[in-house]
Design brief:
516 residues; Rossmann fold; homodimer; six-stranded parallel beta sheet
Chain lengths: 516, 516
């Protein structure tokens, strides 16, 4: 058994059976090891931003890390933006980055780069293998790091000689002993319970795993019982919502609106998130969105078991299932007329199927849809935690790999879609059930708003040339065709509804260019 | 004048009048400053790999740095692979990377990242602006760093408040005092001259600026006079070649072939390059390609003036213009028949126009073309120095911006083309005279070869799934159409010739999918 085989077997032994990859020469022994370990599903991306974004999407839905296989420093570099997004979502990912043979590095060959230096800003754990025999142990260390708590990104750098060198028998496979999340102390539960019972205006802000399943139910019951309000940040890693689920408010993106929403509160209690902060700073506006005099209590962090903490808190305030607020189903009227942000939202409400995974990178267009879809069929909503665009189509790819039985709907701005458009090819190759709606407004619309918000005045022609992407016009139907994907273009809301339904009904991926 | 305006004016004052950009909120004041400084040409890329690769292409042809404008850590991250390639080519580039307002960073907002940490592996100089008033001085420091010597990448990180804060009058614009390249000492010239006159087998290896103009002529004369041989590395940043130019050998990529070529030599003299090293290491093969007992003399590095050094050396060995070898023009027979690597090379020979900039990322397909095109019309050949694919189409974009009066021919593998396919959009937007030939062999062909070369055996079906990109088939004509570019597909050599000629003759960019 060589080092690469030892690595692949250790991954499989520890339940990591999916690898998003774009390998190069230095990873050829890993690729060869796949022939002898067919349980490892390897998914090829034509660009590493697809690879790392897909690993993030996989984690968010599967709650188990995937591996990525990346080619040296530049391959990792191409994946950094979506690793940044994954880091901010606290997704567990195990990057395996090939490296030159150790003795070769001293000669500074063309592909030599500071891989560890590039990895550190996005990784909680970075190590370079020194020999084939110790790869299994090092791999387990990396797997443990991905579990945390809190979950995180680990980057294992694999010099060629450690991949092709011999690793010995039994020692070559080892088992992760990942720690469970920590239990929140009774003191903190008591403090939160007292505060919630005080009757003073309190906002419970949920993030991470508190946004789904039993944890979310308990949070709803606490709110129903104590009268506190419950909200998410503007962006959430994964949120279970829709009819029958606990309804949550959302802290607005725009600073002034966020300040207005938060103004009444005397207390904020955070669960797997931090106090609300502005996405960007603006001249004369605060970074911290909480009102003056509002205190913040951390009920639990991502390192803690939020399910237990919320159950304990629910018990402490005497909340029961009877207290749980439930989102009513909205009437699904099929919209018509020329497409705009408002009827696009209505079209989503009408068509989101039960169990859908909705990946939202719709930026400006989609801001209006979130409220409208609160009463849609129950679904998961996945958002961008790191703010780096080019996230939606790779995330959808990974989410579809993680959940082959669930439909994926990706709503993405045209500017964002172009960042990692190569995702479409992987979706076709893997026959994934993804329907991508590109909101084609032909501009970096958010920047037109931000230009004003940062006090830069009114953009002139030279500035506008940086904000508009209508010259030339992007033809997403042709782009999809170029990657073997069927696609359609719609300009009216009724056509969008039909196109979404057709996309979801037909096997395999499809793309809809929604002209706004 | 605010900090952003001070920055833009300082750039213009120092001759940096081109900015490849993909801005975000934190760069909006820089964008606003463009309205007041219309001499700055801003070129939008839909992905940062296009932006940084274009800046590299611009430098290689213009020998003057361009600026890039990148959005925070992830924007820089997306540009890292082509910055790596630029670093290895020793291209000067000035990155301007937006950053959160300093006080905002402490709250760890979504886009916060270790920008300096990401920049360091690809930059010789990294600094963060602390206030608007000192931006001009800092910008000059950055510009100086791009000039070197040797030329290099400088990354200036620009927090939002330093961009929108007030910068005072005169101090706001400053002038670079970049140092000229150093003069090589007489001792080294004498040593090289003695060695070349000894009659022992000697190889002069040229890189960087020694591969063009007077420096290349002098090198040719030295070889003609002394009987030494002259070669390039396998990859060169920019090489003037073709009929009438000094012919150069090329050290092969494959280790065994390189060892065979280099075996006869007792001495190697390097000019703006290093001793030859294998691209990758392979089991049982050396990293150093020079034969045992061969010594290496560094005539000059990229920090030195190679033009002067080669003139001095030519004088020392008594070489004159009469000694210069000249490449004969090859007969331009138009090939026909089903396309393959050999007749693709013939098609290039037949169609390369005088003054053409040929950007070569053809990987396996193109290896056979280099020798064949030695006697083509005189042209510049640009290659990938860093080994990170996705280099060709962005480089072509920047080269065309730098040299609007010269035709650009980009020969690129299908796998490479998909990395930064967004380049096509910028080429259309800027009406650039670029003809892109995609060599569509539907596989990472180089990896099939490398799989064997690293001793991984014969790839099985699972391994092959990582090496073949034919499922689904990429349709580059549709991809080009998706970005507003006319394109054609050819499968025969005679059709390729016609398509290249048409592409070069018509204004604006075009793409040819060459089916192999």
């Amino acid at each position: 058994m060589n080092g690469a085989e030892s690595l692949v077997e250790t991954l499989l032994t520890n339940g990591i059976d999916t690898c998003f990859a774009n390998p190069g020469t230095s990873e050829m022994h890993f690729v060869a090891a796949l022939d002898r370990n067919r349980e490892m599903r390897c998914v090829l991306g034509l660009f590493e931003g697809v690879v790392t974004g897909a690993a993030d999407g996989y984690y968010r839905m599967r709650e188990r890390p995937a591996a990525t296989l990346l080619h040296l420093g530049p391959g990792l570099g191409n994946g950094i933006a979506n690793l940044h997004n994954a880091k901010k979502a606290q997704s567990g990912i195990l990057n395996i980055v090939g490296e030159h043979v150790t003795t070769h590095l001293g000669f500074d060959p063309p592909l030599a780069a500071d891989i560890a230096g590039l990895a550190r800003p996005v990784s909680a754990w970075v190590r370079t293998a020194t020999d084939a025999a110790s790869i299994a142990a090092l791999t387990v260390e990396a797997i443990d790091a991905t579990f945390g708590p809190p979950p995180a990104i680990a980057t294992l750098i694999l010099p060629g000689d450690t991949a092709w060198g011999a690793a010995e028998g039994k020692a070559a496979v080892a088992r992760s002993s990942a720690q469970p999340r920590q239990r929140v102390t009774g003191d903190i539960i008591d403090k939160a319970a007292r505060l919630l019972r005080s009757g003073e205006p309190t906002l419970l802000i949920l993030g991470g795993p508190a946004l789904k399943g039993a944890a979310l139910d308990r949070a709803g019951e606490i709110a129903g019982r104590t009268g506190c309000r419950i909200a998410t940040q503007f962006f959430s890693a994964r949120l279970e919502r829709g009819a029958g689920r606990v309804p949550l408010e959302r802290i607005p993106y725009a600073v002034d609106q966020a300040l207005t929403m938060l103004k009444p509160f005397r207390h904020i209690v955070t669960v797997c998130t931090e106090e609300p902060i502005a996405f960007f700073a603006y001249p004369g506006k605060p970074s911290q969105l909480k009102p003056k005099g509002c205190d913040v209590l951390t009920l639990c962090t991502m390192a803690d078991d939020c399910g237990e903490a919320l159950a304990d808190l629910a018990a402490a305030v005497g909340a029961t299932e009877m207290d749980r607020p439930v989102q009513a189903a909205s009437e699904k009227l099929r919209p018509s007329g020329a497409l705009n942000a408002a009827n696009l939202a209505q079209a989503l409400l009408a068509t989101i199927p039960e169990g859908c995974i909705l990946v939202d990178e719709s930026v400006t267009t989609g801001r209006e849809s979130f409220g409208v879809t609160a009463g849609a069929a129950p679904h998961d909503n996945i958002q961008n935690m790191g703010g780096s665009i080019g996230f939606g189509t790779p995330l959808s790819t990974g989410a579809a790999i993680a959940c082959p039985d669930r439909p994926v709907l990706c709503v993405v701005g045209d500017g964002s879609a172009m960042y990692t458009i190569q995702s479409l090819w992987t979706q076709v190759r893997e026959s994934l059930n993804v329907t991508t709606i590109v909101c084609a407004n032909r501009s970096y619309q958010i920047l037109k708003n931000e230009f004003k918000a940062v006090g830069a005045g009114v953009p002139g022609s030279n500035a506008l040339s940086m904000l508009e992407i209508d010259n030339p016009t992007l033809d997403f139907v042709a782009l999809a065709k170029g990657m073997g994907m069927g696609a359609t273009r719609v300009a009216r809301a009724e056509d969008l509804c039909r196109a979404i339904e057709r996309g979801l009904a037909e096997p395999g991926p499809t793309l809809i260019e929604a002209q706004l």
